[in-house]
């Protein structure tokens, strides 16, 4: 509890202390991807449904709010919620198709769904500007339209999103749903033998996960003032969502946050250090470090943190597996 | 006595193999019945059919007046039939307590209530000292105890046990017999697949013997064990 309060205080104070725009920009990216990771982790981590198609929901969120904003003058705040609902509804047919498959086959099917979404938005230029995309009209400093002068406001929105994601995860982890999700992730047949409707719980968590991911999509396009299918449905987003969770610690509350902080920092550092040299060297080094981490700590790096934490504080800080609060 | 479970003319084939043929048997409320037979007789397949993991080609399964053919496993469990698996399937990264709580959550979604009931089931099977152990660290025999506790936490009225006693020492088997007797005292109907017949005869009221997917003998344990067809099934026919 104290650790979380200190962490929150530090996160809130950061923009007041750090004036560097570049640093704040990295911080916003960290918060945003941590949030996407948290959303992914609900389904991919706890229920072990390894989706590689979360870009579908990110993109739907981004496009829903942008279409509502440009065509109907609807505030992106409302558009954000609308995007969440659209993503939630889209997850139902997508889930109905993909949940028939298990393990790697499920992952492959989800990749396809995000690609199909991207193709739809590339081809249908009438309602969504096709391949060239569009810029978001700059309305100046207009909080009601989710547009701000400084970067600090964006930082706080991203921080709030992450806080919401973590709070929802925390609540789920400590409820019957957390137990059911982990049970399904561990052994679906055994879970059904004790009365768990595996399909239903997967569908429910997929809806929550899709909803949250869509919020990130709206925020992102509002932040960069631009949208096109390649950005909104980028495969990188799907991969990043899974990767930060896997590196940090799959199926743990703080795993995606830790993973994002490490990976984004590493990538920013490598880019400024090696980026100007030979093209792609920084990506090679990044990939090698990534492989090393995954081979060396398949359960994620959060293990170090919780081990150290246990040594400092005797009360177990473990997730679902141990006990609830 | 009212029937808890009635299986009628149940059949299942896998390609050319007739795994279960025309299987019929009934279990009364609170009765303990053993399903015996050599390997490949169709015992485990019958369990898979009864608990919804396989869909029967023909026949019916009626529990407490409801047809269960085509019903999903979770729903069958909710209807009061719980099973264990031949090879225990614990949720490895959860503790013993969390495993059993997951079962208890079926009847009450509140964690505190589930914990209390789970604790009870864990004590009952003799795992109290290992409640906080991750399930993957248990021995095979403790994993089977866990599986029994997890099934019991769902409040079953019919319990289907698949070789829960395999590989037990005499002492452990005696303990298991006591556990089963206690369940019978609580009026839980039990269908028990097992090979160790000398243990079974201490507790069960009836034996159902299967071979090649069919019932070959049924009734009083002593009589079934003397039945020529049963002896043939296990030992082969004299040449």
What does this entry look like structurally?
- The complex is a heterodimer of chains A (325) and B (239).
- Chain A is an all-alpha fold.
- Chain A has one domain (2-235).
- Helices cover 73% and strands 1% of the residues of chain A.
- Chain A has a two-stranded antiparallel ribbon with strand order 1-2.
- The radius of gyration of chain A is 20 Å and the shape is globular.
- Chain B is of the alpha/beta class.
- In chain B, 37% of the residues lie in helices and 26% in strands.
- Chain B has 9 helices and 10 strands.
- Chain B has helices spanning 43-50, 73-78, 96-104, 111-125, 140-152, 170-185, 197-203, 221-226, 228-235; strands spanning 3-14, 17-28, 32-36, 58-63, 66-67, 81-83, 158-162, 189-193, 206-211, 214-219.
- In chain B, α6 links the parallel β7 and β8 (189-193).
- The model of chain B has no long low-confidence stretch (mean pLDDT 93).
- Classes of the chains: A mainly alpha (325), B alpha/beta (239).
- The interface between A and B is medium-sized, with 24 and 35 residues.
């Amino acid at each position: 509890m104290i650790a979380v309060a200190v962490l929150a205080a530090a996160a809130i104070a950061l923009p007041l202390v750090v004036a560097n725009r570049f640093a704040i920009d990295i911080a916003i990216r960290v918060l945003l991807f941590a949030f996407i990771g948290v959303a992914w982790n609900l389904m991919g981590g706890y229920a072990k449904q390894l989706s590689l198609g979360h870009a579908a929901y990110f993109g739907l969120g981004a496009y829903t709010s942008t279409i509502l904003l440009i065509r109907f003058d609807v505030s992106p705040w409302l558009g954000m919620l609308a995007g969440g609902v659209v993503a939630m509804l889209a997850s139902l047919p997508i889930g109905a198709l993909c949940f028939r498959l298990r393990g790697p086959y499920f992952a492959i099917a989800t990749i396809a769904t995000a690609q199909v979404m991207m193709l739809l938005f590339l081809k249908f230029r009438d309602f969504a500007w096709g391949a060239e995309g569009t810029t978001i009209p700059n309305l100046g400093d207009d909080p009601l339209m989710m547009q701000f002068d400084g970067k600090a406001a964006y930082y706080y929105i991203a921080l709030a999103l992450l806080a919401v994601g973590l709070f929802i995860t925390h609540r789920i982890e400590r409820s019957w749903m957390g137990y059911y999700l982990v049970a399904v992730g561990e052994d679906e047949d055994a879970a059904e033998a004790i009365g768990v409707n595996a399909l239903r719980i997967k569908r429910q968590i997929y809806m929550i996960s899709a909803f949250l991911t869509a919020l990130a999509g709206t925020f992102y396009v509002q932040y960069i003032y631009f949208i096109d299918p390649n950005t909104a449905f980028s495969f990188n987003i799907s991969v990043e969502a899974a990767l930060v969770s896997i590196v940090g610690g799959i199926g743990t509350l703080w795993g995606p946050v830790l993973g994002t902080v490490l990976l984004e920092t590493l990538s920013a550092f490598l880019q400024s250090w090696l980026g100007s040299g030979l093209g792609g060297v920084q990506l090679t080094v990044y990939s090698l470090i990534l492989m090393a981490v995954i081979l060396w700590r398949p359960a994620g790096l959060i293990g170090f943190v919780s081990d150290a934490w246990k040594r400092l504080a005797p009360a177990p800080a473990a997730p679902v597996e141990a006990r609830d609060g | 006595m009212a029937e808890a479970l009635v299986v009628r003319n149940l059949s299942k084939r896998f390609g050319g193999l007739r795994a279960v043929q025309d299987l019929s048997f009934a279990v009364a409320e609170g009765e303990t019945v053993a399903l015996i037979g050599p390997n490949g007789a169709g015992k485990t397949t019958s369990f898979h059919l009864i608990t919804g993991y396989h869909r029967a080609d023909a026949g019916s399964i009626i529990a407490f007046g409801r047809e269960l053919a085509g019903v999903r496993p979770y729903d069958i469990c909710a209807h009061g039939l719980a099973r264990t698996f031949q090879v225990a399937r614990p949720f490895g990264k959860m503790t013993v307590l969390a495993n059993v709580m997951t079962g208890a959550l079926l009847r009450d979604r509140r964690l505190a209530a589930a914990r209390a009931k789970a604790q009870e089931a864990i004590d009952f099977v003799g795992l109290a000292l290992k409640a906080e152990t991750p399930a993957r660290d248990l021995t095979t025999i403790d994993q089977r105890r866990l599986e029994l506790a997890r099934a019991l936490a769902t409040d079953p009225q019919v319990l289907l046990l698949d070789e829960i006693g395999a590989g037990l020492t005499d002492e452990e088997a005696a303990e298991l017999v006591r556990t089963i007797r206690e369940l019978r005292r609580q009026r839980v109907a039990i269908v028990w697949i097992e090979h160790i017949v000398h243990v079974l005869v201490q507790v069960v009221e009836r034996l159902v013997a299967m071979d090649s997917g069919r019932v070959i003998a049924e009734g009083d344990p002593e009589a079934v064990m003397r039945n020529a067809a049963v002896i043939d099934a296990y030992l082969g026919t004299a040449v």
